[in-house]
Structure formats: C-alpha cells, structure tokens
Amino acid sequence: MALYVHKYGGTSVGSAERIQHVADNVIQARQRGEDIVVVVSAMSGETNRLVTLAREIQPAPDPREMDVLLATGEQVTIALLAMALQQRGCQATSYTGGQVAIVTDKVHTKARILDIDTQRIRADLATGRVVVVAGFQGVSESGDITTLGRGGSDTTAVALAAALRADECLIYTDVDGVYTTDPRVEPKARRLERITFEEMLEMASLGSKVLQIRSVEFAGKYNVPLRVLSSFQEGAGTLISYEDDSMEKPLISGIAFNRDEAKLTMLGVPDRPGIASRILGPVAAANIEVDMIVQNVSEDGTTNFTFTVNRGDYARALSILGTISAELGAREVLGDDSIVKVSIVGVGMRSHAGIAAKMFDTLAAEGINIQMISTSEIKISVVLNEKYLELAVRSLHEAFELDKAAVSG
Ligand code: ASP
Ligand code: MG
Q1: Which one of 48, 150, 218 would you pick to mutate in the ligand 1 pocket, going by the greatest count of ligand atoms within 8 A of its CB?
Q2: Residue/partner pairs of 11-14 with CB below 8 Å, 24 or more apart
Q3: Are residues 166 and 259 in the same domain?
Q4: 381 pLDDT above the threshold of 90
Q5: So what's the pLDDT on residue 297?
Q6: Is residue 38 part of a domain?
Q7: CATH code, domain carrying 283
Q8: Among 87, 130, 189, 332, which one is most buried in terms of CB atoms within 10 A?
C-alpha cells in the first residue's frame, strides 16, 4: 500500500476549524487507500508565545527547560487532530517525538535526529490506524526532551518519511507551492511544477523561506520526494525531487533574492600569504557568517578585499575590521549596508553557455550597476544597491521568460 507522510504547518492547524479541515483531508487520502502518517506543527503563533513567556521569566532561558516548554505546542495539536479523526470514525493515535523514539543528540533547541525506531508506527499502520506525530521534537539518549530548531517540523516529516520509506512527503502549508520568485515582488511569478533538491536549497537559502533548509538537505540525502502544497486550496503544489529525463529543463528555474545583506571592503591591504585568513579568521571567531568573498588582483603590492555578511552582523563586522585594518596597515575600511543579493538559479545552466552574459545584459539595459558577482554550477548571484531589487528581479524574470510555463519534454 502506498504510504505518505503529511506535514501540516502552524497556520494549517491554527484553529479548531482548521484542524477539522486537516482531518477531512487525511480522511480523503485514507479513502484513496493510502497509509498516512501525519506530522503537525504547533498552532500558529504558539511557539513564539512560549518563547516570549520564557524570556519574561529567565532572560536567557535554560536550553533544557526551553525544550520542555516548546515541545508542548506540538503536543496540543497532535491530540486535537487525533480527536478530530476519531470523531470522523477514523482510528488514530497521537505520539510525541519521545514516544515514537525520534532520538536526537542533546544539543537543546537545535538538536539533530540520530535515529528513529519505526516499529510502533508500523504496527499501528498495519492495523489501519492513522499515526499523528508531533513535529519539531525528539528525545535525547538520556531521555530528555529536545527540539530541532525553528521550523523543525519539516525535518521531522522528512526524517519519518525516510525512515518509513514513504512514497512521498507532502508539506501542507499556506502557499500553494514554490514560485519562480516572490510574487510580492513580481506578480507574474508562477508556481513551479517541479524543482530539484539542489535548486530548492539555493532558493531556500536565498530567502524563499518555504521549507526549513535542513529538511531539504535531508530529503535530498535520503532521496525522499517532497511536495509543497496548500492546505487551503486544491492543487498539486510543487514536487521537489532529483532530476530525471522526463523533467522540464528550463535554463533558469527561479530568481532568489536576499535583502538582508551588507558589504565590507578593506582597501590597500598588503598582498601577502595569509591575508584572507588574517581578515576572515576574527570574523568567523565572532560567529559572523561570511557569504561572498572577492579579492582583487594586486596593484603595487596591495590589494582590496571585499566580503558580504548578514545585515544584522554589519556593525560588529565593521568594528572587527577596523581593528584588523590597523594591525595590517591597510589604507581604509569601507562598508555598505544598503545592498541586496539577487540570484538566478537553475540546473539547466550547467549545460548552457551564455546565461551569465544574458543576466548582465539585462541588468545593464536597466542601468543597474553590479557591485559583486559570484557563480556556482547552478547559480549566478549579483550584489546590487537595494534600490534596484524590484527592477532587477522583474527584468530578469521577463528576460528568462519565467512567466511562461516551460514546455515539458
Ligand atoms: N513550532 C515550531 C516553530 O514554530 C516548529 C515548526 O512549526 O516547524 O518553529
Ligand atoms: Mg514552518
């Protein structure tokens, strides 16, 4: 029998009414003859409420106790959903992460799953029951409750689907799929029918926050087909899987962007071995994540060194750079926290030349100055002044014809 894991996010279980709707959806799947394991999040807003509450009591809450607290959100929704299913004559049992032995390491508030014992779930499925599992939580080897980091229910669902060798993991949410870009920036953005794991990782890490990134990595690693779809409206959503020959292969699948960027430059650094590590070492030591890095060719024995960080880390990075710059005898440190990153993403570009040229032509035609460029096999990113974000996204969307459905072949 086909086995599916359904995951319903916070808005999909945000009220008694919404939970009833989820129960109806699960029962429809049962009527098609599918075995179903359901993973739910806490009701929308609940995890935030608990975090706020904790901080009112203890400014830096004890991580172990934080997990005991946060895990309650999902415990509410699993019980309510099991009740809603039973009320409809469908046999259902709810389980916390610990009860179905979702074993994690003991890094409280951002634990990683080590192992899942599927015995109990399989036994229930064999008797025709729907199994409802709390997302986002597990248990450490010493028996303490752990949580998997914000958005972690996606990862629970994928991990369960992998452990159970489910046919597909369906992520029900409040959007009807993954789009070619953010529809709030480009209303002509189109839902993608399929996208690869690699593309999704690029889209997710660049700001299309539909899925917890870790869940996509997990799904790719264990080859679990993932489908993102709406619990509010009918539709096939977007399937995230490996590339196969039947797949439509547009050059570009989507345009991702990140407004949360800042740029730092050290001018006139002596060009010697060890400079990059001398500059970036202290930045990494301060736990600041560095994204793009560019070092210019050297002129008169000195060079310019530029990198980008999250805007939230800008002030700290600037002050660290000030100190290093004095030590190294660099000429000047410059910073700019009004930049954005725009990226075109697509596995199709692997086998096509000229994609970068087309991107740069398009931006040039709009008079948009490119400040930095970086490329990978399936992505080209540019850094721009933030005032150009909308224009850049829309003109690229048009140039690569993303508003037109790709011809499947
Ligand atoms: N309830 C948790 C959160 O809000 C986990 C999840 O919803 O995926 O982050
Ligand atoms: Mg979520």
Answers
A1: 150
A2: 11/44, 11/173, 11/174, 12/41, 12/172, 12/173, 12/174, 12/231, 12/232, 13/40, 13/41, 13/42, 13/43, 13/44, 13/77, 13/80, 13/81, 14/43, 14/44, 14/45
A3: no
A4: yes
A5: 87
A6: yes
A7: 3.30.2130.10
A8: 130
